[in-house]
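[agent] plan:
  1. take the single chain provided in the ticket
  2. run structure prediction with default settings
  3. attach C-alpha cells to the ticket
  4. add a short note for the reviewer (M.T.)
[agent] executing step 1
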Amino acid sequence: PKGDNLFFNINAYDVSLTGFQNELFIPAVSGSYNWDNKAVFKFKRQFYDIGYKKEFESAWTLALNFTSNKKDRIVNGPGTGRSAYESNGHLYEVTISGPISDKLQIVSGVVQDNVEGVLGDFGGSYKTQRQAIYSQLDYQINSQTKITSGLQFNKAEGSDTNTSPRLAVVY
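[agent] step 2 finished; step 3 output follows
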C-alpha cells in the first residue's frame, strides 16, 4: 500500500569472553598456531536505525534514514596489559527512487557519514566526515534480463573526490 512508513531498528549487546582459545592452521607455513589467552575481552555495541519512507501514487518513493553506531572494546589480560578502543558514528541518508518508464527505474541519493573514536590507552583520537552522491539506472530488457548502471561520487575529509562507476547484467 502507498503511504507513510516509519521504522526503527535497535540492536545492543554487551559480551565478555575469558580464556579465549583459537587454533589457526596456515598451510603455507606448514603448521598451526595455537593462541591460548587468559585475557578478558569485553565488547559493547549500540546500533540505532530510524527511517521514514514516503510512497507516492506514481510509484516513486522518498526515504530518510538516520543510523547511529557506538562500539567499545576492552581487553584486560595477564602480561598483555589493558587496551581500550571506542568508536562512534552517525550516518544520514536521503534516497529517491521510481520509474522513468515501464522498463527504466532510477535510484538516487546523498549520504553524510561522521565517525569519531578514541584509541584509549595507546593515546590519540580520530574524527572524519564522508559524503557521497549516487545514482543508479536499472533497465529491464525482458522478464529474465536487466542491465544496471550507476555512478557514485565519494568525498572523505582530507582527500580528493573519487568516482565509482558500476555496470552489470543480471540474468
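[agent] step 4 note for reviewer: The chain has no helices and ten strands.
[agent] ticket updated
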